[in-house]
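== Sequence entry ==
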Amino acid sequence: MTAAPAHPKPNLFFEQQISELLSVTMSRQDDGTRSYLVLAAVLQEWAEVGFLSAQMPSIAARAGLTSATLDRLFPNRADLHLEALALGQQLIVEAMKKCPSHPDPMLDLLELAQHYASILQEPYFKQFSLCQTILIRMDSHVRELASIIALAGNAELKQFWHDRIASLIQEGLLRPASLNHMIFRLTAPIEAQTSHWYQTSRSSYTPDGEWLQEITNIVENFFAIFGTEKYQSLRPSFARDWPDLTTELDMQTLRNNRAVDATAEP
């Protein structure tokens, strides 16, 4: 039996990336690093107090800068918000790339789906998503640019899923079909039960059982629709490993990620 991969701990990829960016040591004359620190500080401020409650002095303090320096680097607040939005989109894709791989291609897809759900359940990500929605609904100039940034980030994330699913088609485990449709059938249920559910109801979706079983069901349904005869022939041996993977992943961490502060103002 193939050993299941150890899941990264803690399961706070998005938050961890922001913290790592803010820990960078900068040169006093390095405005490029300073600007990057400010953008990371904006993301942290959004996540912890919400978009509407974010304060420039607090952002400057998080970045280890004075308010005067922040004003010099970003005199236009709309530009600051848009650049922070672009950084957040970049971090989401980078977080996806941190997913551990599994030698079994089918289990690898399950691991990736669970990894994605874990990111979408993060309190930091949820707040970022709400802030993005606010920016997209602002005045025409900001709305247009924020929409372009969001669409570009979504396209990069879609390309990531495109490559992974295309590899399963090449291995003969999935039948050829519209990749956009296949990506939608796999990711839409995950997003609906994590990110989108939170955005619309301001609460957290609670599955009937465990989160890991919920995601497992989504992936199994995906294979039921698109799986080939080769997949069906390999499924019996695959089934021996499947429960081990869902058991050995860090279930408590995923439970913790469901605890979102619903009172935080976006």
In short: The two ends are 46 Å apart (CA to CA). The chain has 13 helices and no strands.
